[in-house]
Design goal:
The protein is built from 16 helices and eleven strands. By secondary structure, the chain is an alpha/beta fold. It folds into two domains: 75 residues, Winged helix-like DNA-binding domain superfamily/Winged helix DNA-binding domain (Arc Repressor Mutant, subunit A), CATH 1.10.10.10; 287 residues, Rossmann fold. The strands form two sheets. The chain has an eight-stranded mixed beta sheet with strand order 4-5-7-6-8-9-10-11, with helices on both faces. A three-stranded antiparallel beta sheet has the order 1-3-2. Strand 8, helix 9 and strand 9 form a beta-alpha-beta unit. The longest helix has 17 residues.
Length: 381
């Protein structure tokens, strides 16, 4: 199979169930060249032929007229090692034993398709997304899969991709209402009545606002790394934020990973292992396009009232709450989570050591995090 044909097919398979637009395919496969749609149509035709498919049957690659293409039936055609992110760092038997939880889809009230997966057993715990997620690739990255598996020892863990990212459908706009709608659709489709929420990073906002609206559904609220995303009254923060947005504009979809690796080191730490940096880069690149990443982050502070809105929602909470933050988080200062904890009636606050935004793939650091969540959610609300 020609390299460009393979790239088209791989991108469609990685986004199974989601319409991948023609523009997205053109940008990914030919990032530094202008080509016509005829070139793309030719590669799609060759990909169909390789699968024993054609434009009439469209068993695997379906044309969505005026928009792009959607892939279905990955389990029928995909090899066991479809992505490089799944490096064999463990014994083969251990890899095969880590059964991949099936991907399911919930439909929001405005018609978006939200992909989610359920694993583990115990107290229901819903991971409310922060940054950019991909529920399939998260499980194929051994270190990250190990984290979710350990968290699932005492929890029925629900992870999902918000609209516009991962395996969920494309999004034209983002807002707090759309993020809450995604969460509402997942918990309804998964049949959960009462559950705990884990708001990771930017997802803490959504978790707090949902808990304020639905206190009868939430047994426990845990936030990690909560803080402002977007310009605010702190000049140094605003300067850093503007630099992040410029990096996304200039380099997110660039063929070279150098731009995206800045985010990898911010999230994983300056001394992150090369294999972890490569895996994080692939996860970001696959999870969301540069256009969607920029639009999503801009929406987090679209009306300039984010932090005051969050504090107002926090003060109204009637849910047992635990606020966790790393002391040397390079993106969000510890004080932001301290202020959140102070606003929530009766909230507990825990600070953890470390200087990376993410702690999920650092086994030495995340044990205390998992233990704190297990202890907190084991107490009945």
């Amino acid at each position: 199979m020609e390299p460009q044909v393979f790239e088209v097919l791989a991108l469609l398979v990685q986004n199974e169930g989601r319409v991948v637009t023609k523009d997205e395919l053109l940008d990914r496969v030919w990032p530094e060249r202008y080509v016509t749609e005829a070139a793309l149509n030719s590669r799609v035709m060759s990909a169909r032929k390789a699968l024993g498919d054609n434009g009439q049957a469209q068993r695997y690659i379906k044309t969505v007229h005026g928009r792009g293409y959607r892939f279905s039936g990955a389990e029928a055609v995909a090899p066991k090692e479809p992505f490089s992110i799944r490096e064999r760092t463990k014994d083969t038997a251990d890899e095969e034993a880590a059964a991949h939880p099936p991907i399911r889809y919930a439909t929001t009230r405005d018609g978006s398709q939200v992909a989610y997966a359920v694993s583990g057993g115990g107290v229901p715990l819903v991971r409310v997304l922060g940054w950019f997620t991909h529920v399939d690739l998260e499980w194929r990255w051994p270190a990250l899969r190990d984290f979710w598996a350990r968290l699932g020892r005492r929890h029925q863990l629900v992870r999902y991709d918000g609209r516009g990212m991962g395996l969920s459908s494309h999004a034209d706009t983002f807002s707090m209402e759309s993020r809450i709608a995604d969460l509402e659709a997942v918990v309804e489709h998964s049949g959960l009545d009462r559950f705990a929420l884990l708001g990771m990073c930017e997802g803490a906002d959504t978790a707090v606002h949902y808990s304020a609206r639905h206190p009868q559904r939430v047994t426990h609220l845990v936030t990690y790394g909560a803080g402002p995303s977007g310009p605010n009254s702190d000049p140094s923060w605003t300067a850093g934020w503007n630099a992040v947005m410029q990096l996304i504009c200039e380099g997110w979809d660039h063929q070279s990973p150098v731009y995206r690796q800045v985010f990898a080191h911010l999230f994983l730490g300056a001394n992150a292992r090369p294999e972890a940096v490569r895996a994080f880069d692939e996860l970001q690149r696959t999870a969301v396009s540069g256009e969607q990443a920029l639009r999503y982050l801009q929406s987090l502070d679209s009306d300039g009232r984010r932090e005051s809105d969050l504090s107002e929602a926090a003060r109204s909470l009637k849910v047992p709450s635990l606020v966790i933050h790393r002391r040397n988080d390079p993106l969000v200062p510890l004080d932001h989570s301290r202020r959140l904890a102070a606003a929530i009636p009766g909230a507990r606050f825990i600070s953890l050591g470390g200087d990376a935004r993410w702690l999920m793939v650092d086994e030495a650091a995340n044990g205390e995090f998992i233990a704190a969540i297990e202890h907190f959610t084991s107490v009945r609300s």
